[in-house]
Amino acid sequence: MAAATMEKVVNLCKRRGFVFPGSEIYGGLGSSLDYGPLGVELKRNVKDAWWRAVVTGRDDVVGIDAALIMHPAVWEASGHLAGFTDPLVDCRSCKQRFRADDLQGTTCPACGGELTEARQFNLMFKTFVGPMEDTAHVAYLRPETAQGIFVNFRNVVETSRLKIPFGIAQIGKSFRNEITPGNFLFRTREFEQMELEFFVRPGDDDSWFEHWREERLRWYTDLGLSPERLRVRPHGADELAHYAKACCDVEYRFPFGWAELEGIANRTDFDLRRHAEHSGKDLSYFDDERRERFVPYVIEPSAGADRSTLAFLLDAYDEDQVEGEPRIVLRLHPKLAPYKAAVFPLLRKDGQPERARHIYDALRRHFPVDYDQAGSIGKRYRRQDEVGTPFGITVDHQTMQDGTVTLRDRDAMSQVRIAEDRVVEELRARIG
Ligand code: GAP
Question: Where in the chain is the domain with CATH 3.40.50.800?
């Protein structure tokens, strides 16, 4: 298996329409990135797989979709206004700015100049609500989706029949004015999170923490990430966020080293208590079986949609040889692949394109599929391999006689003949 490099994957993403530099015709904007036609499908498949595993596939979790701009009091209560900061230093000579905790020495890594003392820089993006640009109208773009869940805790309890333990999940954009974004999709200023807040009885929190740690790790391997490139790293006491009793990171071995894909935290009753204090509303829970009232503890698996998309791309990237020709192949899990299959007429004559088009139209009602009749069949297979399409359906001379097509498997490189009216069923079985 050929190891992926960031450069190879970034190039493939640009070349094949997965991810483009943001605002490219104007020279780009920092680390902003745009998903292209194939990238949007891949990322949507990642989010759908998460939603199925965490929400619709369970009977104890519901979803919400909260506003990105919330009341500024939310961020006071959550501690983000006071504490969501990174230490920032300026170079007195070249004026560049750096995150102090990224630096080894005390001189500027760009020019060797003298650095200022570190000061705390708040990572939240500020804006104004309405036409008045004054302090009374300041608001923030959310730096995490979690707070949208906590402020809706009461609404969800009152409108659903959920009993503790239960969870509320959300997928959506978050914004952080990162001092040092980079490594492509790994760290950007605008990104998407997939977060679950799972509310439990205090005392049951440790076992639910274990439960979610196992579940979340399994999710990545079920979708094909190499187990040897995944690990769970518990946080040391000095690393814990202000709200957490315990935390561990699911880490992936990226080409630039081991780094966090997802954090799983025991947030205790910190958030609900703080919001209760700041809003004056009762955010406790009444257990009507045990006739007791308590403020639930929260276990939070918090994953990044873009970061996991990057990990799935890197892990899937491979180079091999087919019939003496080099091939780039994305071995994406069929559930994640943007196209599940591609349909090809072997020749552009003898009625083959019409027959292939007919099969394509029928398949399209069931799966995202592509149609390609341009160039040699070998080239067309390679084009699909490079974007991770797991199956190829080829219409040839024999199809016109007996109604069978060849089904090619991207990874096994096997080709079998099956009846054209069995293709949907066969693909369904193979996608899983
Ligand atoms: N609610 C908890 C929370 O937000 P976090 O560890 O700060 O915790 C959770 O973020 C996940 O969000 C990270 O594991 C990562 O996948 C993703 N994430 C955070 N900052 C990011 C950034 N600047 N760019 C891309 N993804 C980011």
Answer: 339-431
CATH architecture of 6-69+140-313: 2-Layer Sandwich (3.30)
pLDDT band of residue 258 (cuts 50, 70, 90) is very high
Cβ–ligand 1 contact at 187 (below 6 Å): yes
The pTM of the full predicted model, rounded to 2 decimals, is: 0.96
Strand 246-254 relative to strand 404-409: parallel, antiparallel, unpaired? unpaired
From the CA of 215, how far away is ligand 1's center (Å)?
19
CA of 152 to the centre of ligand 1 (A): 21
CATH number for the domain formed by residue range(s) 339-431:
3.40.50.800
What is the structure's pLDDT at 413? Answer: 93
Exposed/middle/buried for residue 161 (C-beta within 10 Å: 0-12, 13-18, 19+): exposed
Instruction: For Cα atoms 262, 317, 360, give the angle at the middle one, nearest 5 degrees.
Output: 105
